[in-house]
Specification:
The chain is of the alpha/beta class. About 45% of the residues lie in helices and about 20% in strands. Pfam families: adh_short_C2.
Length: about 250
């Protein structure tokens, strides 16, 4: 399906693995120039660069920590110099850990919240002078922001905060032609990544969905393409559930 995005420029955070990688590659397939970022070198980063080369894609992969204001500014400077104003910003970078609140050090709370919610804030704030007008911001959050999850209060709080940030900024930035939307993702089967719950956990989560299966990264990417495109020109402040009816 052609979403009419050819010639646009997108920045995708956390773009080397799972959902972020699928979004990055889906945008490239639509003819979008993409600047993706990752926090550290990895096999996934190396193979993504190889995919860029194999496709002769107008794409760059930049190391950056989205929680670091200086890294964010450098990332956006590199993106703008390479491909011009940013038409689509996808805030996907995130971290998680599993700890009961009574055992959660303050440092771990801060690490997760400052990466997930703080990183989204840093990227949007830092991009205001780099965004095209009009443009689209898509924030990736999680179904647990609505439903909750034990032993991950920091993660749930950060993902719920992204929904609040989305709804606030859609009103603040709408007059400039900047749309701000969020996707709440369900359990996604990131092929090649080990699930902390194991295969039994995957089966249990699949049974919790109306569709009886886990999601695929490409299905999240397809929703991002819709929100990035003119098909969603009158959509802002929306929180789109892509969770299989969990």
């Amino acid at each position: 399906m052609d979403f009419g995005l050819k010639g646009k420029h997108a920045v995708v955070t956390g773009g080397t693995r799972g959902i972020g990688r699928a979004i990055t590659l889906a945008l490239i397939e639509q003819g979008v120039s993409v600047t993706a970022c990752h926090r550290q070198e990895s096999d996934e980063a190396a193979t993504l660069r190889a995919e860029f080369a194999a496709r002769d894609a107008a794409a760059r992969l930049v190391p950056a920590d989205v929680a670091d204001e200086g890294d964010v500014r450098r990332l956006l400077d590199v993106a703008h110099e390479a491909f011009g104003p940013v038409d689509v910003l996808v805030n996907n970078a995130g971290v998680i850990s599993h700890l009961p609140l009574a055992e959660m050090p303050t440092a771990e709370w801060r690490r997760v919240v400052e990466t997930n919610l703080g990183g989204t804030y840093q990227m949007i704030r830092g991009s205001l002078d780099r965004l095209a007008r009009p443009s689209s911001i898509v924030n990736i959050t999680s179904a647990v922001a609505k439903h909750g999850m034990p032993n991950a209060a920091h993660y749930v709080a950060s993902k719920a905060g992204i929904i609040g940030l989305t709804r606030a900024l859609c009103k603040e930035l709408g007059a400039e032609g900047i749309r701000v939307n969020a996707l709440t993702c369900g359990i996604v089967d990131n092929t090649g990544q080990k699930s902390p719950q194991g295969e039994a956990g995957k089966r249990r989560y699949a049974q919790m969905t109306a569709l009886g299966r886990l999601g695929e990264p490409a299905e999240i990417a397809a929703a991002v393409l819709f929100l990035a495109s003119d098909a969603a020109a009158y959509v802002t402040g929306a929180v789109l559930d892509v969770d299989g009816g969990i």
